[in-house]
Design a protein that fits this description.
With 121 residues, the protein is an alpha+beta fold. Helices cover 39% and strands 13% of the residues.
Length: 121
């Protein structure tokens, strides 16, 4: 089933992100903490969100998509353009992108071993 969403809505821009980056971004819910993975060469690497050399490349890619949409609207609707570039809007787009079937992945999809069973050594 195909759903139509307004192109400059949070859902619409999340779909645009998934369409553009499905080949090299995956979100794995079953990791602790939950993480984005980026395809580098032939290997999936964590988007190092909580480490000192923070990359946050997925957040940057989403910001680019939101700001490109804002640039198209700036002349006609500057208030909406500012909203599309806000941190809250960009974060909402990222949260919606996580559940897109083109981006959602299992641990095995990105080369991670299965989780250890509780109580196992």
């Amino acid at each position: 089933m195909t759903r139509t969403t307004p192109p400059n809505s949070e859902a619409g821009l999340a779909q645009a992100f998934a369409a553009k980056h499905a080949g090299h971004a995956r979100y794995v819910h079953a990791t602790s903490p939950r993480r984005w993975f980026i395809r580098v060469d032939a290997v999936w690497e964590r988007d190092k969100q909580w480490e000192p050399d923070t990359r946050l490349i997925v957040q940057y890619w989403i910001m680019e998509i939101c700001c490109a949409a804002a640039a198209e609207l700036h002349r006609d609707d500057p208030a909406l353009a500012r909203q599309l570039c806000s941190a809250n809007f960009i974060s909402a787009v990222e949260r919606l992108a996580r559940c897109d079937p083109r981006l959602a992945a299992s641990r095995g999809d990105v080369g991670l071993p299965p989780p250890k069973k509780r109580g196992a050594k």
